[in-house]
Design a protein that fits this description.
Structural class: mainly alpha
Number of strands: 0
Number of domains: 1
Order of helices and strands: HHHHH
Strand content: under 5%
Length: 133
């Protein structure tokens, strides 16, 4: 942590807190009760997080000055706190251990492809709006 701007770290902390609270709230509303269920909360936050990161990277982050604390707050903080690769992996492990092999494969593929689509769609939308302006 030597050499890091404490305000930047605080911005990441705040953004991460907001993202984590949103993820936790969605997990409460859409709990995956058993390993045979699609883990909607994790899936949604990962796809939405990828979309937001694509948006922030393409739109906001290119326009903000390097010293802006919005960059780390929104990208590393909010999107990092919102998304959860590790929970996705645990969900897949539980599916495999419960012999839900097809569901595990579908979930893994849908998560990766959905995240990529989210990021590409966000970038394309921002670029199209920017070109029209």
């Amino acid at each position: 942590m030597l050499g890091h701007d404490r305000r930047e770290l605080a911005a990441i902390f705040v953004g991460g807190g907001v993202g984590t609270v949103i993820r936790a709230a969605l997990s409460t509303v859409l709990p995956a009760v058993n390993p045979g269920d699609w883990p909607w909360a994790t899936f949604i936050v990962n796809i939405v997080g990828a979309f937001l990161l694509g948006y922030f990277t393409t739109r906001l982050l290119e326009r903000l000055p390097v010293s802006s604390y919005l960059r780390p707050a929104l990208g590393t903080g909010l999107c990092g706190g919102l998304t959860t690769f590790s929970t996705m992996q645990v969900d897949i492990l539980k599916m495999l251990e419960s012999h839900h092999y097809r569901l595990a494969l579908e979930y893994a593929i849908a998560s990766v492809v959905g995240g990529l689509v989210g990021i590409f769609v966000a970038a394309a939308v921002v670029r199209r709006v920017r070109a029209a302006a």
